[in-house]
Amino acid sequence: MLTLRFQRVGKKHDTIFRVVAVDSRFSSKSGKVKEVLGWWDPRQDKFELKTERINYWLKNGAQTSDSCFNLLVKAKIIEGPKKQIVFHKKKSKEQAPTSAKAMAGKETKPQETRSETKPEEAPAEPTPIEPAQEPVESKPEPISEEKPTN
């Protein structure tokens, strides 16, 4: 399946994006682009798109990424509301608690239950706690004073 998506071009902090048609199995970074369909400069908010070629690919079943879809809506090539784009912030190792001690210090909120969705259940009977078995001490084996044979 073909996808219309952005391909990042340019220097650090001075990026421009190409709008490209690429096979969905490949990354846009791979260089296996079918066709370059335009560009978008987010810093100046300028873009230039080949509308005829974009319409051709869309009619032939190409899908768009959410960001590319929003640009095509802005350019009035596609009609409809813009899609909500969610950015996921990656957690660093310092922020993500991994040990039980770190988790114990955090307060947790109890989950709210709705009486409409769940019928009230009778409280469960407490399970009897069995006494822990004491560990059996093992006696050390006597050391024999035999000489090893070579």
Could you characterize what this model shows?
This protein has 150 residues and is α+β, with helices and mostly antiparallel strands. The protein has a domain at 2-74: Ribosomal protein S16 (S16 Ribosomal Protein, Chain: A, 2-Layer Sandwich), CATH 3.30.1320. It is 15% helix and 23% strand. The protein has a five-stranded mixed beta sheet. The longest helix is centred in the middle third of the chain and has 9 residues, at 51-59. It is elongated, with a radius of gyration of 32 Å.
List the helices and strands and how they pair.
Elements: E1 2-11, E2 14-23, E3 33-41, E4 46-49, H1 51-59, E5 63-64, H2 66-74, H3 100-104
Parallel strand pairs: 1-5
Antiparallel strand pairs: 1-2, 2-3, 3-4
User: Could you name the CATH topology of the domain at 2-74?
Assistant: S16 Ribosomal Protein, Chain: A
Q: Let me know the CATH homologous superfamily of the domain at 2-74.
A: Ribosomal protein S16
Provide the residue-averaged pLDDT.
Answer: 76
Q: Largest beta sheet: what is the strand line-up?
A: 4-3-2-1-5
Tell me the overall shape. Answer: elongated
The largest sheet is: 5 strands, mixed
Instruction: Return the CATH class of the domain at 2-74.
Output: Alpha Beta
Low-confidence stretches: none
Please count the helical segments: 3
Please identify the structural class as seen in this structure. Answer: alpha+beta
| Radius of gyration, CA atoms, in whole angstroms | 32 Å
